[in-house]
Amino acid sequence: xxxxxxxxxxxxxxxxxxxxxxxxxxxxxxxxxxxxxxxxxxxxxxxxxxxxxxxxxxxxxxxxxxxxxxxxxxxxxxxxxxxxxxxxxxxxxxxxxxxxxxxxxxxxxxxxxxxxxxxxxxxxxxxxxxxxxxxxxxxxxxxxxxxxxxxxxxxxxxxxxxxxxxxxxxxxxxxxxxxxxxxxxxxxxxxxxxxxxxxxxxxxxxxxxxxxx
Length: 213
What we know:
With about 210 residues, this protein is α+β, with helices and mostly antiparallel strands. The chain has 2 domains: about 20-140, Immunoglobulin-like (Sandwich), CATH 2.60.40; about 145-180. The chain has helices at about 1-15, 145-200, and strands at about 25, 30-35, 40, 45, 55-65, 70-75, 80, 90-95, 105, 115-125, 135-140. The strands form 3 sheets. Strands 2-11-10-5-6-7 form a 6-stranded mixed beta sheet, with no helix packed on it. A 3-stranded antiparallel beta sheet has the order 3-9-8, with no helix packed on it. The longest helix has about 55 residues, at about 145-200. It starts with a helix and ends in a 12-residue tail after the last helix.
């Protein structure tokens, strides 16, 4: 009877579908690029499961000023499909690595009309529940001043922190060396002073003269 119950439990557990868990998708927040340049739009995901052979990636694009999104790319079954009628039909390349949970795409020869929001969705069966992630693309004729200022400020802050760390490091070394030297001099002077006091405290006994018989 116990053997029958054990076998029945194994069969029931085997036919119960595996529960899915949430999947978290990551993209950048906003990207800036120059007119005519290429840009990589990254997309990755976190899942508690091993990367499935049925992993899928999908990209959609919504131009600025539009409410509708169009599908521009889809990866499934180990094959990448690029929309052959959309604005990126000849300018989109899949550069991701699905085995490493990377669904990045490369947009080539950017135009001003490419400004808009790109949304990536990923599925790693049985983990298929997750919120797609979006990144906004802004194409400029030249690097915007604000972006340049922010980049310069970040670099300046980082360099300033490095210089400050180096200064503090050498200052601490100097203070420690000075402290050790002071203690050494103080200890040596104390010993010398104690030796001098001992020599001053010792006096020879007085000579006593006795008359000759």
